[in-house]
Amino acid sequence: MANARVDLIRARNALRTAIVALNIAMAIDVDSPLQIVDNLIYQPVTIDRQALRADSLRQRPEYRQAKLRAAAAEATERQTFRNFFPDVTGSGAYGGAQTPLNEPVRHPVPELVSLRRRQPGSRGIRRRRRTSRARGRA
């Protein structure tokens, strides 16, 4: 009788150890209760293969990298196209000076205005080549 009780305790411990190992393998919390059904019956499962395929493609790093490269090539193409246009920059300044004791200013600061226009000029051929290369990458 004593040997039967010891065997029963060992069997229960082995069952608990197996359940913990199964929970770990299935990424379930170790303390969660688990009911084991002895005889399993067939249950049909419907899988939407197109949705699974689209989801797996969306999560692939190579797919994301390819999409980002295409977007970068399109941005380079737009930037190269915009570089055909002349660059126009302007700046201005206006100011004055005052002494600590509110004395009249002897030398006022003049107004400064500058406007600069730069035409692409001879670099146009190289820009066209860069544009065509950027279009080829996109």
Account of the 3D structure:
It contains 4 helices and 2 strands. 51% of the residues lie in helices and 10% in strands. The mean pLDDT is 79. It has 138 residues and is mainly alpha-helical. It folds into 2 domains: 36 residues; 77 residues, no CATH class. Helix 3 packs antiparallel against helix 4. The protein is elongated and about 115 Å long. Strands 1-2 form a two-stranded antiparallel sheet.
Can you give keywords for this protein?
two-stranded antiparallel sheet, 138 residues, mainly alpha, 2 domains
Give a brief rundown of this model:
The protein is mostly helical and 138 residues long. Helix content is 51%, strand content 10%.
**Domain unit count:** 2
Q: Helix-strand pattern, N to C?
A: HHHEEH
Percent of residues in helices comes to 40-55%
Number of helices: 4
Number of separate strands: 2
Strand content bin:
5-15%
**Radius of gyration, rounded?**
38 Å
Q: Whole-number average pLDDT?
A: 79
- Main sheet: strand order: 1-2
User: Describe the biggest sheet?
Assistant: 2 strands, antiparallel
Q: What structural class results from the helix and strand content?
A: mainly alpha
Spans where pLDDT lies below 50 across 5 or more residues = none
Gap between N and C termini: 81 Å
Instruction: Classify the oligomer.
Output: single chain
Per the principal axes of the C-alpha atoms, what is the gross shape?
elongated
Task: Lay out the secondary structure.
Layout: H1 2-25, H2 49-59, H3 61-82, E1 87-93, E2 112-118, H4 124-137
Helix pairs in contact: 3-4
